[in-house]
Specification:
This is EthD domain-containing protein. One of its GO terms (molecular function) is oxidoreductase activity. By secondary structure, the chain is α+β, with helices and mostly antiparallel strands. It folds into two domains: 149 residues, Alpha-Beta Plaits; 93 residues, Alpha-Beta Plaits (2-Layer Sandwich). It is 40% helix and 26% strand. A hairpin with an 8-residue loop joins β2 and β3. α6 packs antiparallel against α9. The N terminus is likely disordered.
C-alpha cells in the first residue's frame, strides 16, 4: 500500500505544478481513489436489433423496458446510457446498482428477471450483449449540479499486464491524473470484480470509465490530459476498448 500511495502522490505532485491543486483536493482525490463500496454495479452493453431504427430502439428501452426493470427486487439505482455516435461500438450501456451480491442474486429465477430477458429480445441484438459485475470507485465528485456531456469507455488492459496490477494502476495512478484534468467535473471507475479472474476467465471488459465534462476541446488540449494519455497507452489495449459519448437517463424507481 505504501508504494501505491507514493506513486499516486508523485503523479499528483507533478500535475500540481500545472494545475495548482490544493492539499485538501489531493487528500480527497487519494481517499476516493483508494476506497470503494460494497455496493454492486452490473454493467450491460449491447447493440440494437438490426431491424429497428435508432429512434425505435431508444423509445422501447426508455419506456417499456424501463418499466420491466423497475420491478427487480433490491434495485437501488438504474441508469440508461444511449450512445450518441454510431462509431462507439455499442448502442446502449445499462447500469444497475444493488446493495450487495445477496440482493442481486435474490433475483435469480424470479418472474421479474425472466420478464426482463423476454423483453430484451424485443429491441436488443442478443449476440451483441455482454455483462460485467463491478465495484465502483468515485474518483472525482462534482461540486455542484451541472448539465455536462458524458463519455463512457469499456476498457480492456494490455495482455502483458496482469489483472491485479492493471486495476491498481488504473485506479490509484490513472484515476488521480484524470481527476486533475480541467473541465472534468465528475469521474467514476467501475472495476470488474476479481472473482472472474480467479477462475481463469477473461471478462468482456476489465473496467468501465465514466466522465462528465463541459467542453471537449479544452479537455483534449490540456497539459494534464497529455499525462493521462501517456499512462493510458502503457496499460490500455485501445484495439479492444470502446469509447463513446452518451445521453445519460436516470430512471426513476
Amino acid at each position: 500500500m505504501r508504494s501505491v500511495v507514493h506513486n499516486v502522490c508523485s503523479n499528483i505532485a507533478r500535475l500540481n505544478n500545472v494545475g495548482k491543486l490544493s492539499h485538501s483536493a489531493i487528500s480527497l482525490m487519494l481517499k476516493k481513489s483508494l476506497l470503494g463500496t460494497r455496493m454492486i454495479k452490473q454493467v450491460s452493453f449491447f447493440k440494437r436489433r438490426k431491424d429497428l431504427s435508432t429512434e425505435d430502439f431508444r423509445e422501447h428501452w426508455r419506456s417499456k423496458h424501463a418499466d420491466v426493470v423497475r420491478r427487480l427486487n433490491g434495485l437501488v439505482r438504474y441508469v440508461q446510457n444511449h450512445a450518441l455516435e454510431a462509431s462507439s461500438g455499442f448502442d446502449g450501456i445499462a447500469e444497475v446498482w444493488f446493495e450487495d451480491m445477496e440482493s442481486m442474486r435474490a433475483n435469480v429465477d424470479t418472474p421479474e428477471l425472466k420478464a426482463i430477458r423476454r423483453d430484451e429480445e424485443n429491441f436488443i441484438d442478443s449476440n451483441s450483449m455482454g455483462t460485467i459485475l463491478t465495484n465502483e470507485y468515485v474518483i472525482k465528485e462534482a461540486e455542484s449540479v451541472v448539465v455536462d456531456q458524458k463519455l463512457m469507455a469499456l476498457v480492456n488492459r494490455l495482455e502483458h499486464n496482469d489483472a491485479a496490477t492493471f486495476h491498481s494502476i488504473y485506479r490509484d495512478q490513472l484515476g488521480p491524473l484524470v481527476a486533475a484534468v480541467p473541465n472534468i467535473h465528475r469521474y467514476v471507475q467501475a472495476h470488474t470484480r476479481s472473482g472472474i479472474y480467479r477462475t481463469n476467465r477473461q471478462p468482456a471488459y476489465d473496467a468501465v470509465a465514466s466522465l462528465w465534462f463541459a467542453e471537449v476541446d479544452a479537455l483534449v488540449s490540456s497539459p494534464e490530459m497529455h499525462a493521462v494519455r501517456e499512462l493510458e497507452h502503457a496499460i490500455l489495449d485501445f484495439d479492444r476498448t470502446r469509447i463513446g459519448a452518451v445521453e445519460e437517463i436516470e430512471i426513476t424507481l
